[in-house]
């Protein structure tokens, strides 16, 4: 349970976003919800629930500025919030939180529509129970991707992070290098499955250098940039995704029945 003080929430409409944190984290006049220390358990995709009513969904997490050890959360308002007073809200999480990152210099400059990222959201949402999906569009910069992957895995704690683009051999293709710099356990089976599936469609698939691995409680997968390759790559690994995430996060059930 998380104790929430709504006295500073103001008149926030359903569908908008609001900050959660301590009263010292935000400028005067900024609407926010003050939360107890139990909020440290919150991660992207979790909901705060009161008597069966979903009030808030966690979108992202960040460190609070100039407040030692404190974090702030951004939450989506799902229902009308109480006017004032304190409530103990239950933490719930049903399904997996997913972040996709599109690597594209032209896309980040507004010169090209991002089609691969939204396709990732659609395919994963159709294949797995999903609690939240959030997308990011950044240029092909090693440092940008490396820092974003660490933030998504360690701070916001998304269950699944998928990058699209930047897997080839061009001078600006840096997705594999940035991913290798942060992952803790590599998943070569995922990589081989993606390559094998792609080779049934085109010999150019052997050029892709996509990496898959774990970082904290998150699984990170690189897929190529074209929508066709996104679809083929995800179809190759989706059958193992749920099991892989569950095992990574501590599922102790047997992997197979023993006769």
Automatic annotation (TrEMBL):
<dbReference type="InterPro" id="IPR051920">
    <property type="entry name" value="MPT_Adenylyltrnsfr/MoaC-Rel"/>
</dbReference>
<protein>
    <recommendedName>
        <fullName>Molybdopterin adenylyltransferase</fullName>
        <ecNumber>2.7.7.75</ecNumber>
    </recommendedName>
</protein>
<dbReference type="InterPro" id="IPR036425">
    <property type="entry name" value="MoaB/Mog-like_dom_sf"/>
</dbReference>
<dbReference type="GO" id="GO:0061598">
    <property type="term" value="F:molybdopterin adenylyltransferase activity"/>
</dbReference>
<dbReference type="GO" id="GO:0006777">
    <property type="term" value="P:Mo-molybdopterin cofactor biosynthetic process"/>
</dbReference>
<dbReference type="Pfam" id="PF00994">
    <property type="entry name" value="MoCF_biosynth"/>
</dbReference>
<dbReference type="InterPro" id="IPR008284">
    <property type="entry name" value="MoCF_biosynth_CS"/>
</dbReference>
<keyword id="KW-0501">Molybdenum cofactor biosynthesis</keyword>
<comment type="pathway">
    <text>Cofactor biosynthesis; molybdopterin biosynthesis.</text>
</comment>
<feature type="domain" description="MoaB/Mog">
    <location>
        <begin position="99"/>
        <end position="244"/>
    </location>
</feature>
<dbReference type="InterPro" id="IPR001453">
    <property type="entry name" value="MoaB/Mog_dom"/>
</dbReference>
<comment type="function">
    <text>Catalyzes the adenylation of molybdopterin as part of the biosynthesis of the molybdenum-cofactor.</text>
</comment>
């Amino acid at each position: 349970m998380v104790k929430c003080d709504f006295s500073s929430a103001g008149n926030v409409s359903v569908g908008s976003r609001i900050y959660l944190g301590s009263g010292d984290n935000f400028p005067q006049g900024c609407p926010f919800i003050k939360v107890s220390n139990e909020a440290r358990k919150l991660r992207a995709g979790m909901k705060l629930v009161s008597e069966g009513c979903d009030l808030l969904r966690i979108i992202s997490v960040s460190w609070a500025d100039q407040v030692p050890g404190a974090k702030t959360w951004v939450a989506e308002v799902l229902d009308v919030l109480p006017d004032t007073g304190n409530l103990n809200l239950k933490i719930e999480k049903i399904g997996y939180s997913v972040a996709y990152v599109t690597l594209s210099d032209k896309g980040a400059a507004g010169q090209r529509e991002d089609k691969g990222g939204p396709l990732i959201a659609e395919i994963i949402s159709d294949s797995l129970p999903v609690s939240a999906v959030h997308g990011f569009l950044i240029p092909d910069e090693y440092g940008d991707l490396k820092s974003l992957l660490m933030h998504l895995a360690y701070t916001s704690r998304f269950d699944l992070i998928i990058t699209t683009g930047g897997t080839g051999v061009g001078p600006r293709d840096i997705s594999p290098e940035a991913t290798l710099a942060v992952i803790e356990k590599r998943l070569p089976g995922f990589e081989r499955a993606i390559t094998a599936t792609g080779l049934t469609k085109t010999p150019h698939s052997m050029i892709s250098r996509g990496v898959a691995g774990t970082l904290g409680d998150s699984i990170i997968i690189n897929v190529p940039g074209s929508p066709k390759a996104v679809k083929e790559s995800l179809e190759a690994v989706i059958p193992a995704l749920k099991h892989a995430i569950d095992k990574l996060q501590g599922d102790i059930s047997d992997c197979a029945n023993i006769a």
